[in-house]
Design brief:
globular, eight-stranded mixed β-sheet, eight-stranded parallel β-sheet, binds thymidine-5'-triphosphate, UDP N-Acetylglucosamine Acyltransferase, domain 1
Length: 404
């Protein structure tokens, strides 16, 4: 079935990681996030994928070209980010007069669940969560076999099934994309779904696994998921004294020096160097040309291209943007003394990450002075810097963020 993948969002909740790149291009287990969405669609039965992208940004089309995972790709430009219905409207001229699937390009779907969605069209992917109040919650008939609507972020959720942003719709839905503005001023695809629910029997398809990658710690969760599914492979240079256990990918052109211990799953990209005497564990991703130097421990973290932790550092449950540099002795806290979930700022609001272990997020080219201590949940902005010996308890730009 023809499939539209929405990849033209602004990704504001993911800042600062999206200051200089699109959210769908964030690294997940060695590939861009949206590559996983397209692969899931290809596996589930997509005949062709139309990727909706932003204007003036060729990074997605240049990376993927006209084919990925065995399916033909086509690109539709959404000129202004007016909402998900508007994004599908941009794709409409590329669609045949036939049923189609719409997927969020910043979500991970398990392939079998997605295949069930394709098979059961018209349908919506539904996922069970403990606290549905922050999601679009699906309303169904008494038997739970037909979707009757969606309520956004209800204080008193009618069910624990939330909308995954995966829809299989009838051909007529192409004519329903001119929806009015919602309360938050966007053109929402859920209004198109509401129309489909009135005219068709839309089935809820329960998804086994699903992850919406909208906020920084969800990038860690995406890497945990996808690194966990990966098979190990050593094509690069690994010193005989290094010890690799579990599934570890060392790409050609990557170097693992003596005395290094890597406990998979871990992914070491071409051009990266690890060691001597370094410890990489948890689900960690060491990006292209990144460096993990002597006596550095990296646990369950994402290091983007050219991120350097050269000497005596600890990085846990963190994301280091492209070109970041940690001064010798930089330490990241990733656990509160009271064991409560770590909180962080998202668009100026203090939000619980729901994670007991969560470290820091460093924007591209951020630099720390020697012996910097970074408290759990801290974000440094793009090109941010700390002084030697600095203890960073809160986001340096939090006052500005609160005012915005
Ligand atoms: P959201 O996650 O709601 O929006 P976003 O990606 O812009 O992120 P944020 O809220 O942090 O700013 O979007 C859901 C999906 O729809 C996502 O894959 C991006 C896509 N999208 C578009 O393609 N065009 C749009 O105009 C919008 C709003 C979203």
């Amino acid at each position: 079935m023809q499939t539209v993948v929405l990849a033209a969002g602004r990704g504001t909740r993911m800042r600062p990681l999206t200051d200089r790149r699109l959210k769908p291009m964030l690294p997940v287990a060695g590939r861009p996030l949206v590559a996983h969405t397209v692969e899931a669609a290809a596996d589930a039965g997509a005949s062709r994928v139309v990727l909706v992208i932003q204007p003036d940004d060729d990074t997605v089309s240049e990376h993927f070209g006209d084919e990925h995972a065995g399916v033909d790709l086509d690109y539709a430009v959404q000129t202004e980010q007016r909402g998900t219905a508007d994004a599908v409207r941009a794709a409409a001229p590329h669609l045949d007069d036939a049923p189609f699937v719409v997927l969020n390009g910043d979500a991970l779907y398990d392939h079998d669940s997605l295949a069930a969605l394709y098979e059961r069209a018209p349908a919506v992917g539904a996922f069970r969560v403990d606290d549905p109040t922050q999601y679009g919650v699906l309303l169904t008939d008494e038997a739970g076999e037909r979707v009757t609507g969606v309520v956004e972020k209800p204080a008193d959720p009618p069910s624990d099934l939330v909308n995954t942003g995966a829809y299989a719709l009838p051909a007529e839905a192409k004519a329903w994309l001119d929806v009015g503005e919602s309360e938050r001023g966007e053109l929402e695809f859920t209004d198109v779904l509401a129309r489909a629910c009135e005219t068709h029997e839309v089935r809820p398809v329960a998804f086994e696994r699903w992850l919406d990658v909208g906020r920084p710690w969800e990038l860690l969760e995406a890497n945990e998921w996808k690194l966990g599914e990966m098979a190990g492979r050593v094509d690069g240079e690994v010193h005989p004294d290094a010890e690799l256990t579990g599934d570890v990918v060392v790409e050609a052109g990557a170097t693992v020096r003596s005395g290094v211990v890597v406990e998979g799953p871990a992914y070491i990209k071409a051009g990266a160097t690890v060691g001597p005497n370094a410890y990489v564990r948890g689900a960690s991703y060491v990006g292209p040309d990144a460096k993990v130097g002597h006596a550095v421990e990296v646990k369950n973290s994402v290091m983007m291209a050219d991120a350097h932790a050269g000497h005596l550092a600890y990085v846990g449950d963190s994301v280091l943007g492209r070109g970041t540099n940690l001064g010798a002795g930089t330490k990241v806290a990733n656990l509160r003394h009271d064991g409560a979930p770590v909180k962080t700022l998202v668009k100026g609001e203090v939000v619980s990450t729901g994670r007991r272990k969560f470290g820091v997020i460093l924007g591209d080219d951020a630099k720390t002075g020697i012996n910097t201590s970074l408290n759990a949940g801290v974000k440094l902005p793009t090109e941010g810097a700390t002084r030697p010996g600095e203890v960073v308890m809160f986001d340096p730009d939090s006052e500005r963020a609160r005012r915005e």
